[in-house]
Queue: 2 jobs
Job 1
Amino acid sequence: MPSRAWRRMSEKQTFKTVAPLNIHSPVKPDCLRFVCLSDTHSKLHVDDMSKFYVPPGDILLHAGDFTMKGRPLEIERFNEALGKLPHKKKIVIAGNHELSFDDSLFTETNCFGESIGTVERYLKTKGLKSVRGLLTNAIYLQDSMVTVCGINIYGSPWQPRFCDWAFNVIRGEEILQKWNWIPENVDILITHGPPVGHGDVTKAGINVGCVELLNTVQKRVKPKYHLFGHIHEGYGLTTDGETLFINASSCTKGYKLCNPPIIFDVPLPPGQ
Ligand code: 5GP
Ligand code: MN
Ligand code: MN
Ligand code: MN
């Protein structure tokens, strides 16, 4: 019951909403600019990128749900769109819509509207073993970390169970086990779903974020930035005084691609 938990927890929490940086603002000196997207749901197309402005920057981050069903064609289109963007590095995680990225679903037949045989034959023609190989223009993180200019970025696709899509896990002990894999030296944490209390309120007005994720962020990992999406209507920035929480859902609840990308600048560590 995340809503009830948050009601109790919030009495002892610092909580502030934060205004986003203007996406046309110049990059601060000696900083790396991060540009955040999430939940683009196969709406980011090469041919009409002018309709959805993605500002330039050094590193593009995407917090999952880049497709509707994780079909190879959707992944390829997304990869092509990434290829047109100017950022030096693009870091991507999967969300619950990337069905083909979840190994536990990939073993079943017809789990995402295309039979597993069709997908496997298609991958074989490309010399690939998994759909991850289709993301040639991105660094794909799944319970793993990459270090860019001394900044540690960790990505994880899991979210509390809802409708049995990809990377769904039960709240409590089971999902905590996934968060326990996050190392403590993370500067930017990317998860698909929000923690409880930050960018996690649905249209019905209830908090649906993960209690264990907030505890992990606040008590153990303490990253400077926590990026996520998933609850489209929770788009925006908040802080607890230590971590900046960014719900960068690019699509609205009605899957319209119109929430602007969110940017932030990170000072380069000494020597970088
Ligand atoms: P998606 O299907 O793209 O993962 O999520 C789309 C929408 O489904 C969200 O914006 C939110 O309204 C709803 N949703 C996703 N996960 C949950 C959840 O755990 N609980 C509730 N109540 N709604 C959810
Ligand atoms: Mn830390
Ligand atoms: Mn989504
Ligand atoms: Mn989602």
Job 2
Amino acid sequence: MSDIEIAQANEQKEMQPITTIAAKVGLQEQDIERYGDYKAKIKLTAFENQPLPADHKLILVTSINPTPAGEGKSTVTIGLGDALNKLGAQTMIALREPSLGPVMGMKGGATGGGYAQVVPMEDINLHFTGDMHALTCANNTLAALIDNHIHQGNALNIDQRRISWKRTLDINDRALRHTVIGLGGPFQGIPREDGFNITVASELMAILCLATNIHDLKARIAKILIGYTYDRQPVTVGDLKVQGAIAMLLKDALKPNLVQTLEHTPTLIHGGPFANIAHGCNSILATTAALKLAKYTITECGFGADLGAEKFLDIKTPKLGKHPDAVVIVATVRALKYNGGVALADLKTENIAALEQGFANLKRHIENMQRYGLPVTVAINAFTADTPAEIQRLQALCAELGVQAVNTEVWEKGSEGGKALGEAVLASLTAPVDFKPLYEPETTLTEKIAIIAQQIYGAKDVVYETKAKKQLKTFATNGWDKMPVCMAKTQYSFSDDPKALGAPTGFTLHIREFTPDLGAGFIVALTGNVLTMPGLPKQPAALRMDIADDGTITGLF
Ligand code: ADP
């Protein structure tokens, strides 16, 4: 059965009312705003003034570098949450919201798979509670206000050639990467070059995920850099005086969304920045709510640990005020074989030699997470083609690093298939944790980039292209040169070359340009050819999707 068939069979029979799910973590009717029978938003007042109990634990799920198919990180995160609840450990899951870009494109949704899914999966993967639309609308409202300001006399002296604020759309649409707007004569505004980012790469998405309340949301929006004046002075949203209006458009999007797994584990799905071109973590508010409401919180971050986990630990953790107590790295035998040079079509054939070679990728991720001082467990997300010899070899290789690797069958069996992983993770939580950040906040931007490139990616050095070099000078002038950095890099490799699989060393990391996200509080460093507006593939997933006359959806994975 496909993911959607499993989910639909369950949705018709077994979903519990959202009030029942809310009650499992002590939330009453007045604490939530219902969106139909099975979705709700949690009011901030339901948790914001509660203390965070010191014995509540945070478990971060990350993974090796993925193959083009995605390797089941969400599936394992959901299955682990269900398994912990089954083991009697009160658990909440905190995930990111899917973007319509990958849903219609190639990678798929973000609601897990098999018997480890969140439901109602059609709603969550499509328009859900409207957060993405609110973000897109807020983003484009700001763009319209900027263009209107210039049209109406440009009191702020904004140089229309130096506007950095782009429009957004939550669909992969390469034709919108570079646009010209304002054509058609004096009544249509001032013509200028513009472009679109995918909503999940927008600064507003990052801000929504890092804001701790409405006050903070508004203050961050006020700091957003929208461009420069003709005499090269930065212009912010605060200068335009529209932070209140933009924050207002996000008032509901700011509240975490509550749903359930197939096994009724309360799950928050909130905020969805991509991890290759944005910071890759769900919202601070959702993670905080889960931490306060449940004894154990399982959360995930995007793509491999070089991207999502590095950003979770270096960008999100300081803002959250709590570091993870344990890390789970999801690996699959087939992805390691792919990293060991096996073609996608041949991944079903046993190949211990390729597994051993590709293990270099997992090894570096394990060592990177250990470098932060965190206990690590490996979850081997079992695929039917894995052979016992491959699994044993992988477990032995992990054991040599002092790490337990647990075969995990949550996709096939739900929580039953995740009990062994759950037990291993609970055991790992008893180890003392001495969290060591990768860099100190006061180090410079280029020092931070060098540390990430060399210590996490394995690079020899970092080269800045002309545009990036010029921007560094501007950042120094404006006092932005000590901000945290958010790396934008291909997810397929530790390097900026998507074809360099395994654990490459001795390479140069190329920084093409920067985007100062002053409201989010970091500078995005764009490496290699990474794009902030993806394109659709030759065979988009949309070709398989349909809706029947009675409203039944098919082909949504
Ligand atoms: P990620 O979070 O790494 O992108 P997902 O958990 O979203 O990956 O899973 C991607 C796809 O792979 C889903 O369609 C899911 O059903 C499928 N999948 C995940 N784990 C397994 C497995 N063990 N066996 C078969 N398919 C799986």
